[in-house]
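Pipeline run #58 for the internal structure catalog. This entry was flagged by the ingest filter as a single-chain record with no existing model, so it goes straight to prediction. Upstream metadata was stripped on purpose; only the residue string is passed forward. Reviewer on rotation: M.T. Logging verbosity set to normal.
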Amino acid sequence: MKIICAFDSFKGCMTAREACRAAASGLRERHPDAEILCLPMSDGGEGMVDCIAEAVGAKMVSVRVHDPLMLPVEAQYALSADGRTAYMEMAAASGLTLVPEDKRNPMLTTTYGVGEMILDAVGRGCQRIVMGIGGSATCDGGKGMIDCLEGHLPLPVVDAVLACCKRHFFRRCRAGELDESIEIVVASDVSNPLYGPNGAAYVFAPQKGATPDQVLLLDERLRAFARETEVKGIAQAALAVHPGAGAAGGLGYGLMAYLGATLQSGIDLLLDTIRFDEQIKDADLILTGEGKSDRQTLMGKVPQGVLCRARRQGIPVHLLSGAIEDAAELTQAGFASVHSINENDNRPLEVLMQRDVAMENIKKVTQYGLF
């Protein structure tokens, strides 16, 4: 028997790797002769780099950058074995978790550190950058990143980045300095535009500490930034309403407009990168899950991505998450079974959210077989 454990992180509780290993531990007690393969998952947010690094053998590197409040911080990203691809999360430099709750204010936070990570990767010879852009503390449209790349750091390094990128913004760089272009791929499942009622400021800025008045100001800033970009001939007006332009406080827009980035479904990008389709061949069943599953799970989250790939090969997928809502819809979508790992545990949520408790509960579910 071959069983795949392909869990996302249970936010605030277990990492994807911990969830997979806990599930595998229970399975081994129930099926001691089974081949069990752990494939930690991420849809482009927290943990994406760790998942990819473990799967493809990339090495972690550190770089000193500026955090969202322009304070020094050590950021990590992964380099492929051949040194040509960098896997990074914008949150390593500009993430919400880097800002204390009492100092969260997207009027002040910046993506400057994201630019510094890009510069570091290019300085190491990378020709491709894969970036997850979940968990941001910012709402600057990527302007901080662009300010960094425009020349606020040593010119030889900046010129290398600018000469590599394909957009009009960088035509001022010395032609012929570098022969190859840098490809930037962004992992994001956010479909919001840059500005407006469904844009970055209105939808996401309150979660980052913005007051209602600040939301209005931030939305106007994003509109002004888009107008400035369009006047320079860097982007067409349609780009501001492109699905995903509002991701990470508008960083999606900045990356597309100024660096020619392409946006891709986070879970599909990860599944392709780790060769998921090949790894699940001949599997008898797959276990997947996340902190909470509901109808939004079916809109590009990890379990839905795993389910789609598994159904192509006729492999049943069982959903084991911390909490379950909309169970009928999830079952109708094709999951072989849907369970909460806590469904037989009546302890308070604060207890169930403890790492050791959650790991023990997922182990029990797999050990005693609710599927």
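catalog note: The CA atoms of residues 218 and 224 lie 10 Å apart.
catalog note: The chain has 15 helices and 13 strands.
status: ready for reviewer M.T.
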